[in-house]
Every structure is written in structure tokens, then in C-alpha cells.
Amino acid sequence: MGLLAFILRLVGCFSNVPRRLLISYLIRRGTKLPGGSVFQLLDGTVVKIGSLGYLQREFEATQYARKHTKLPIPRVYDLFTSKDNQVAYLIMEYVPGEMLLRKWRFLSASQKHSIMVQVKDIITEMRSIRPPRSQRWIGSFTGGPFLDFMIGGNDPYGPFDNKTEFNNFRISRFTSMPYCEFPSVRERFASIHREMPNDHDIVFTHGDINLRNILVDFKRDRPDDDVHIVALVDWEQAGWRPAYWEKAKLVFGAQPGSDWSAAVKTWIVEGYENEIAREIELQLIHGGAIY
């Protein structure tokens, strides 16, 4: 470790100011990591660069999930913007590990099964988080609007007081499209709407669990090179959702036909087959495949 890195680590225990002042220099001297504008800095932290709106949600949701679970989630240290407020910087803990996407095809069947079991356990623990008030809602963990890239667009949605409101919104995202000029399409949307249950449990949901957002580590001194999840990252879409939503996001985030895709459709989150079938049909109609 160089002298500057040592000083930054030491001072960083007490203040974020030096890192903020030197952020451009630290990024230039840093190491680019997989997964977008993410760099490992000299002081052993990681910076994620993006818009304040996205990173604010990730910062707050990551803190919330760390506080209420014992899941492998990196600590977040700081969030600030550039002087012109055009760029935001999220500073978080560096967790040694490898992106699962890059290692998946090299894993043995038993290692893959172990990872799938760990993901299942992570989801189970997330669902044990109790909301801060008795009345549940569909939205961010604070009760505000939420991001969801499967719904589409970059703007936040909601919050919704109940599942009925969410179902109405979900269908409205499609019925406003030009293809609804076809009577058969309008009729099918109306039928799907009637089929949507309004009594799902509302649970805490990551909303973006995929092979890119899981970091793993290999324990070389154990049989079969045991592989363990050391971090689940990218929490900007997290919040309170219907119980089937995590499975829907897992399915749509998986490569079709892969063993990972088969696992997320069947047993990582069990059940909700009808809900997933409806979401698939909505996406097919949206693509103009059914009319």
C-alpha cells in the first residue's frame, strides 16, 4: 500500500472530505471494475458514478437492507455530487469477489446448486423484514415512489396503497399503447386485468437479482472449491412489492434456456406460475406478437 493510500484510509475513518476533494484524481488512479462506471479507489473503497436520483435510492436502500438483515451487502460510506451537480458519486466498501456472470459457466453442477440455495436463502431473509408501519404499500422502502426497469422508463412510479391500485397501474402501462386499437387486444388486456389477484403479500424485494449483481468467492481449501456469495449489489430498485415480483424479475433477468433460468422459474422462488405467465403474455403483447 502506498503512502497516499494509507493516509486516505486512515483519514477516511474520521472524515469523507479528503476523498471528496480528491475524487477525480482517485478515479484516474483507480481500477475499473466490471459493471458500469465502477472503480476501486486507492483507499480500498469503491466508487459508483451515476445520476443522483438512482444513487440516492441505492444508498438509502442498501443502508436499510444492511440494518435489517445479516445479508452479504457492502457498506455504503458516502454520497455526494460534483460541483456542477451533474454527476453523483456513491462510495461503498470494496468486497473481494468475482462477478457470478463471469464464473457461472465454469462452475460444477454442485457449485451452481449451492449458489442457487444461497440465493433462495437470501430472498427468504429479505422477506422476513417487517415494514415500518402496519399498513403495507407498494413502493420504495420509505413509502415513496420506486424504480423498476421491467415496468419501463427511468422515472419512479407509485407508491400504491394496495395491490388493486398496482394492478390498475400495471395494466395502464400497456392499454395506453397504439396496439390497443385492435379490439382483440383490448379484450385480452381486460381479461388479464380481471385475472390479477389483489391479495398477494407485500414483501421486501431486491428487484434486480441476476448473475451480474452477485459477487462470489471460492474457498480453495475446501472440497469441490466451495463457492460462496460475498455480496449482493445494486439495490436501487429495492422496496416493497407483491410477493411474486422478485420471481418475475429473476425470470426476466435470466438468459432463456440456461440452467439459471430453469432454477429461477421453478424452485429459487416457488409458486406464482400464473402470475409469471401473465407477465410473459403482457410482454408478448407489448412486442406486437399477439393481436
From TrEMBL:
State the signal peptide span.
1-15
**Coiled-coil segments:** none
Q: Does the keyword Transferase apply?
A: yes
Stored InterPro entries: AGP_Transferase, Aminoglycoside_PTrfase, Kinase-like_dom_sf
* Any one GO molecular function term: kinase activity
Pfam families for the chain: APH
Is the keyword Kinase assigned to this protein?
Answer: yes
Keywords (alphabetical) are:
Kinase, Signal, Transferase
Superkingdom of origin: Eukaryota
Designated name of the protein: Kinase-like domain-containing protein
Species this chain originates from? Lentinula guzmanii
Biological classification of the source:
Eukaryota, Fungi, Dikarya, Basidiomycota, Agaricomycotina
